[in-house]
Amino acid sequence: MNTEFKFSAGVWNLHTGADPFGPPVRPERDFVEKCQILKKLGFDYVQLHDDDAVPMDVPASETAAYCKKLKTITSDIGLEVEFIAPRIWEDPRFADGGPTSNSAVSRQLALDRAKRSVDIANELGTDRIVLWPAREGTYIREAKDAITAYQRLLDYCNAILNFDPKVRILGEMKPNEPMDLMYLPSTGHMLALCYQTVDPSRTGVLIESAHSILLGLDPSDEMAYALFHKKLWGVHLNDQNGLKFDQDKTFGSVDLRRAFNQVDVLVRHDFGKNGEVVGLDVKAMRTQAHDISTKHLSNSKEVFERLVQLAVSIDRQEWQSYVDAQDYEALEMFLLRHFLKI
Ligand code: XLS
Ligand code: MG
């Protein structure tokens, strides 16, 4: 059992409240302030997109120097960089996707960005590249040939693995949004692709609770499946109220029992013992005022920590006795009584 965890969040988790239907409602914070807030809230790591770390207009010849400055800032604050995620969905040239775009120019651009991300990751002291294939799918299914798309995603992973002998890829899979349908929508899809790459030992997954829920799956089972393959190298814990847009709600805020099961599987299977970090991919509500728009992070962390205590304090022998007797009605009430102590 592991009960000691390191926490992490993205710079995007401190945000202005803009959504597809309205502009920012809070001022943007600069990078330093975001890192200082994370540190103050007890986080140990920060997560970055490639252009969060080094803006795209910084010339290649200055990338290393830019990273060195950034590393000094984060180290002085007391944070490490958990991963770099190439943002292969925002640039208009990625409108049809990156690795699976029908445009060769866009595919090349996506590869250039991945390589640049690896360089940035190396400079910032992490070997983790998170691949969220946001637009690797279709608006209409007939627009792309699916088999060609799978091959292109495999080629993309291989090119990254061949580019650097130490880098690791963590696929963060999601079934929809922004696309109608994505390729490789689930953990299982990505794991199957991992085994086809040139180095399966360097390909794994990061699982986001909301993405599993959008798939209609239980996040703890998805995590267990990746743990079974020894490929759960990151999590993005949050919550989600049903099958709608990706809500990034505070961890446990919709379904505490579902959150407990995620914590329980991580605790029981030593997540964190090999440097894995508990990421909280949560967003503040748009209604939240600027000066109190960090509570979604502290609340998610508190919920996680309290659920760890519930996982530690639960009577495992009693639990097992109901399993042995196949008395699941009794098991259910035993669990509910335990949760009601929160
Ligand atoms: C979006 C993803 C995104 C990634 C990082 O749904 O969760 O936030 O985690 O780009
Ligand atoms: Mg995420």
Verbal overview:
It is a single chain. With 342 residues, this protein is an alpha/beta fold. It has a single domain (7-310), classed as Alpha-Beta Barrel (TIM Barrel), CATH 3.20.20. It contains 12 helices and 10 strands. It has helices at 31-40, 50-53, 63-77, 104-124, 146-163, 187-194, 209-214, 219-228, 256-268, 295-313, 316-324, 328-339, and strands at residues 7-10, 45-49, 80-85, 128-131, 137-138, 168-171, 181-182, 203-208, 232-237, 278-280. The strands form 2 sheets. It has an 8-stranded parallel β-sheet with strand order 3-2-1-10-9-8-6-4. Strands 5-7 form a two-stranded antiparallel ribbon. α9 (256-268) links the parallel β9 and β10 (278-280). α4 (104-124) runs parallel beside α5 (146-163), α8 (219-228) runs parallel beside α9 (256-268) and α9 (256-268) packs across α10 (295-313). The protein is globular and about 60 Å long. The model has no long low-confidence stretch (mean pLDDT 97). Bound molecules: D-xylose and magnesium ion. Residues 85, 132, 172, 174, 208, 236, 246, 281 line the site of D-xylose (XLS). The site of magnesium ion has 4 residues, from loops.
